[in-house]
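Note to self: keep these together.
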Amino acid sequence: MAHRDIPQSRHRSVRYALLAIGWLSVVLGVIGIFLPVLPTTPFLLLAAACFARSSKRFYAWLVEHPRLGPWIRDYLDGNGIPLKGKVYALLLMWASIGFSCYLVPRPWARGFMLTSAVCVSVYILRQKTLPSRRGGADLG
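Structure:
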């Protein structure tokens, strides 16, 4: 799979920050494979996005990885997102936004968080849903 035509950041500090976020996302994604409450696909997609802007080598490694690549290739190729990935992403996002709204007393901040959550939810729900594959990487 070829590297997407996404320009890499020219700022070294931004590239390092993206690499750190990317690797943290890979670790959380791998943990999510074994821990059902932690979603795998959204973290690996975030890692791919970070690597695409910071390191062509790590992006290629992730997308072509025999175990991790299948979790994200379908989405990157425009084929959709597994149903479990959608459900986990939406549930965790709304739980964290709800908790954040409870903690943050500012109405403008709550409005921003809720608006963001609605926009992300619409985006996720409008993506194609991958049919379940037995034995494949179809979990979120």
